[in-house]
Amino acid sequence: MRLSNPGQETTDSAGDVRAPLTFIVRQNGTPYFLSSALTGGPPEYRFRTEARTVTIHDVRSEADRHSVEREGFQLVRHRTAVDDLYDDDAVNGAYSREVEALLCQATGASRAVVFDHTRRSDSGEGAANPDGTRGPARIVHVDYTVKSGPQRAADALGNETVERVLGAGGRIAEINVWRPIAGPVQRSPLAVADAGSVARDDLIATEQRFPGRTGEIYMLAHSPGQRWCWIPGMTRDETLFLKGWDSLDDGRARFTPHGSFRLPDQDPGAPARESIETRAYLVFDN
């Protein structure tokens, strides 16, 4: 059993924990925030949030049975040949090619195209990225929406490709590949919602403002029916696939909320959580 700090509670010996997650509060008008690319530091959130203590289930023992198509997340073991995941050239080159090959092998996609990388650290100053430093994403969210998913797909793949694939009855999906840069993770791990437990009206479209453009993501409003999961002690040789958007709306997982949380017994002297997330679009030809 995990030992808890005063005012915090753990559950059973399987590794389930009770911990607060940060949710958006439903409100009038369109919520928005200023991205790190715009602020040069942490994002600035212009909407109300609330902390809700929830049970986060330890699913490591059953992780091999979870599917990015059903629950919206999937643990995939993979050893990268890239030694330094802070080397932008290596990440944009060799690591991107590795992730594309991994995604095709794991999902059966015809093609995968990496279009973005983000490093995060809870060290205090955050992790270095070309557009500024980033800390863990504390507010639970989904990376894309019904509006921004296809828009970003057109940016990454080209309008002609999107129209050809979908016009021929194919499918396009966005997947975020999350990996610890160093491990095992001992601080600020990732909580992931079972996509099947999330009601569509709990997903709140939120503007993400960048220099020269405005994107859109979903923030999540709390609901008692949501089922939260985590995989303790993730290592550098493990990745977590997270579904961000799918062109098909046929009952499969389409949007997977996620965000970091503080462990009830988290040791402030433990190594900082460092991670890299890589976003890619997958093409499934008919």
Task: Give the gist of this structure.
This protein is an alpha+beta fold. Helix content is 15%, strand content 34%.
Describe the fold and architecture.
This protein has 286 residues and is an alpha+beta fold. 15% of the residues lie in helices and 34% in strands. The protein has helices at residues 36-39, 88-107, 148-157, 159-167; strands at residues 17-24, 32-34, 44-45, 49-58, 73-77, 111-121, 141-142, 171-180, 190-193, 203-210, 213-220, 228-230, 238-246, 258-260, 274-284. It has a 5-stranded mixed beta sheet, with no helix packed on it. Strands 3-2-10-11-7 form a 5-stranded mixed beta sheet. Strands 5-13-8-15-6 form a 5-stranded antiparallel beta sheet, with helices on both faces. Helix 3 crosses helix 4. Residues 1-14 have low confidence and may be disordered.
